[in-house]
Amino acid sequence: QVQLEESGGGLVQAGGSLRLSCAASGRAFSRYPMGWFRQAPGKEREFVAAISWSGGATKYADSVKGRFTISRDSAKNTVHLQMNSLKPEDSAVYYCAAGIPRLGDLRVGVTSYDYWGQGTQVTVSS
Fold it and tell me: Where does the pLDDT of residue 102 fall: very low under 50, low under 70, confident under 90, or very high at 90 and above?
């Protein structure tokens, strides 16, 4: 069982930056591939970024590539999402998720993730 809690969301102007954090508790966190997803009002939850259990590989949605960076610190049981050059279309609730290890790393589908945080709101004003 893994519990996840996101923080770091807020209101920022277009072009600004935010750093989201996901604190994990529970056993064997370092074995889980991790991901960030987001959901805007009236839209489906979508993949943003993923990181392998080792931290050695990452994957990004095309819409955020070059602007967002995912990282993990397994010693501190945390995952971060550094978001730069934010755009109004990045506004959404952002969720941290722990993947199902047997499915492998860097999965983009929501069904590949077993545990979810409660989400943190990111609002980018134009």
Answer: confident
Does the pLDDT at position 28 exceed 90? no
Rounded to 5 degrees, what are φ and ψ at 66? 90, -10
Amino acid at 104: G
- The 3-state DSSP class for residue 26 equals strand
In this prediction, what percent of the chain has a pLDDT beyond 90?
Answer: 87
Tokens 């047997």, located at residue: 102
Helix or strand (DSSP H, E) at 47: strand 46-51
Which helix (H) or strand (E) is 122 found in, with range? strand 120-125
**Nearest of 91, 92, 99, 67 to residue 81 by alpha carbon:** 67
Query: Do residues 53 and 39 touch, judged by C-beta distance below 8 A?
Result: no
**Mean pLDDT estimate for the chain:** 95
Q: DSSP assignment, residue 102?
A: G
Picking from 76, 1, 78, 74, the residue whose alpha carbon sits closest to that of residue 36 is 78
| Predicted pLDDT of residue 29 | 82
Q: 39: which 2 tokens? A: 């959901």
